[in-house]
Design brief:
The structure is a homodimer. By secondary structure, chain A is α+β, with helices and mostly antiparallel strands. The first copy, chain A, has helices at residues 24-27, 44-50, 57-64, 81-90, 92-99, 102-105, 130-143, 192-195, 201-227, 242-248, 290-297, 299-303, 334-344, 350-354, 364-372, 378-387, 396-401; strands at 30-36, 148-153, 162-165, 170-173, 182-189, 232-235, 253-254, 260-261, 269-276, 325-328. Chain A is built from 17 helices and 10 strands. In chain A, the strands form 4 sheets. Chain A has a 4-stranded antiparallel sheet with strand order 2-5-9-6, sandwiched between helices. A two-stranded antiparallel sheet of chain A has the order 1-10. Chain A has a two-stranded antiparallel sheet with strand order 3-4. Chain A is globular, with a radius of gyration of 21 Å. The interface between A and B is large, with 55 and 56 residues.
Chain lengths: 405, 405
């Protein structure tokens, strides 16, 4: 646990942020004075555009495979015509919204820029207390398609210093307006059964479908807040790191594989967020034992084919441009991870598949295992998870053959 | 039951259709030689644009209320700022996709025109039998967001003769390509709890949300078929009558209130469809006793505030421009119905709320009632439905006050 005093960093590149905040004591992120906000130019997807140590013929083919007319189907199960057809259809909404202004406005919305396609909101503000607003927002948010929803205070530390333009091959200033005091964070579940088939192009359909559901929800919630007369900016992977905001909004804890682990869906989620000035009350971060489980589990570190997930303790990684500086945490090797994606021609979620929190918690026995993972029965729960072969891979054909009922 | 002989009508305005088909014996639609295909110019939403007997100051205000900055919020529960904010946010996807090409292309996609925003599909066709294609399409369709999915053969009788241009205030030729042999029909559930609050602007959120979910699914399924190398045209309320196609695709039966009644969700659904040349096997129409229930029930006819739903037997209505000619069926008075919407400033679903098939069939007791409605226990089931006050109205405040869990 770190001191909860608010300390202005020496070297911090931003004007207004403080590098350490009281909430860190509850989220488990230790932030040092070396902290620097992240520039999206350095994420692996953008490095695959401008950095010759990442870009390759395979990485180009990887991106092209999302355009079905350019994809190369294989004979091996999980990478056939039907698998790519479904994966790329599942990505439809994310691609469509991202492509709308890519040429005309140099915006790849949801991935490099916030979303802008909204109607005029109300000309007057709704009358309501922060408590009423928060309760109604959560009710509306679930109605509009969020599987879970939380609120945290705006925290500039997790906002990128720059977005990136793939047209101009350079970073560009962040355009998030001033004065947005809260962040509404939502998660949507990724499809459980197709994730069981990872690695496969079919399991990539779960990624696309998770994004599509997330996007619909976050766009609709943003329009809802605008309809209440307040400002709201919708964001997916652009603009800010989603995971620390989700943890601060009480939606889950941070796992060894670098993913958010939620009580409802484990790590099998996609995250989106809305920056807003609607008066809202923040959630408290939650603790259901994830850190202690990850401390002894390492199932993801072992299963990762390229050993991109650390076996060690959380650490500061201050010498890698793709990693945020000055935050002590488990950090995956993004370069190794992405190279595996490029080589196999689709994204990988093996770390999600094998995670002991990747279960269907509508099943009572799985809720029992989750409870055991939160207390002294943890090791027994992990042993049972292994014995019962929860993380085992299924074939794509197994999924396609099931009746659709 | 009508003769199953294929008879070319005397007066039919189309070149190729036959007015009676064998499938009619299974769907219960009796088609006469007076049959004429419908021109979308004559539906109530388009008549509210060009027909002075429908257009009024109230109808203008009704349409404007979907633009939140023009909406007039009231103090009465269900019509307050939050209710309109949620309703109009729930319509976000439908509005956004409809508006994209309205100015530049004179297309209101999903309502007056088919959808066109797709990526290139595969350059080669998938190899598969009609049986394999059908099984995989249904599996993919549910994955991509359809709550239920069926297939029928292309039937030109239900395709409009013309779409309508609200820009040019005139009808325009139908642009559906030739040679699309099958129709994939999907339904998505509308939200059960908010429908209980009808009449209210809040219940209109269920309409918008049902459309939004339907649109995501139908666009993604269309992209999936294109990714298989075949042609696919996505349609919502434009281009063809959805209900007879849904009935022919085995998704449900036709009810007294003029709506599709499905076994899974009763009448609480939105329908969309994809015209395609992917080789597919059609479903058989289903019969779970709806016609016999509607024959004796009349709950919707009684509850309708403007008595727009018939109390009588199915009939031919050949003297009203808003009704299809030459089909014997229950037909609602669309003018009375729409006038009520315009007067209250939002759409109405009272007939859905009070329908004895409007239940949550995940509950075992409700499945028992549905079974009773299919056999000699029908009258007892209707009596129980009434005694247990299933169709009763709840207040919008009741819905907003519930915890969001």
């Amino acid at each position: 646990m770190i001191e909860s005093a608010r300390v202005k960093s020496r070297d911090c590149s931003c004007e207004s942020c403080v590098c350490q905040k009281p909430v860190d004591a509850k989220t488990g992120f230790e932030v040092s004075d070396e902290f620097e906000r992240f520039n999206q130019k350095y994420d692996m997807f953008n490095r695959a555009v401008w950095d010759d140590t990442v870009r390759s013929e395979r990485s180009q083919k990887f991106f092209e495979s999302y355009f079905t007319d350019l994809a190369e189907f294989r004979k091996v199960e999980g990478f056939q015509h039907r698998d790519y057809a479904l994966r790329n259809a599942a990505w439809y909404i994310a691609d469509f919204t991202a492509d709308l202004l890519e040429i005309s406005g140099d915006r790849k919305e949801g991935f490099l820029d916030t979303y802008t396609m909204f109607r005029e909101g109300a000309t007057r503000k709704i009358e309501g207390s922060a408590e009423e607003n928060t309760a109604e927002l959560k009710r509306a948010g679930k109605f509009l398609g969020a599987d879970a929803i939380g609120v945290c205070d705006y925290d500039e530390r997790w906002v990128y210093t720059h977005n990136y333009s793939r047209q101009k091959l350079t970073d560009k200033p962040m355009d998030l307006p001033e004065g947005l005091s809260s962040v509404v964070v939502i998660v949507n579940e990724m499809h459980h059964q197709t994730i069981k088939t990872v690695p496969s192009a079919l399991s990539g359909a779960a990624t696309g479908q998770g994004y599509s559901r997330d996007i619909i929800a976050v766009l609709s919630i943003t329009q809802y807040i605008r309809n209440l007369g307040y400002r709201a900016v919708a964001s997916l992977n652009d603009t800010a790191l989603s995971i620390p905001l989700a943890v601060q909004a009480g939606l889950g804890q941070y796992g060894r594989h670098g993913l958010l682990i939620t009580p409802e869906f484990g790590p099998r989620v996609r995250i989106a967020k809305v920056f807003t000035d609607l008066p809202l009350n923040a959630n408290e971060p939650i603790d259901f034992g994830v850190t202690e489980t990850c401390n002894i589990c390492r199932r993801c570190s072992v299963a990762c084919p390229v050993k991109a997930i650390p076996f060690d303790e959380p650490a500061f990684i201050n010498d890698n441009i793709s990693h945020i500086k000055g935050v002590r945490k488990w950090t995956i090797d993004a370069k190794k991870c992405f190279k595996f994606w490029a080589n196999q021609g689709t994204d990988c979620s093996i770390c999600i598949r094998v995670c002991p929190y990747n279960k269907d918690f509508r099943v009572a026995f799985n809720r029992l295992l989750r409870w055991m993972l939160s207390n002294r029965w943890r090791r027994l729960a992990l042993w049972l998870d292994s014995k019962l072969k929860y993380g085992q891979r299924r074939t794509a054909g197994w999924w396609w053959r099931q009746p659709s009922a």
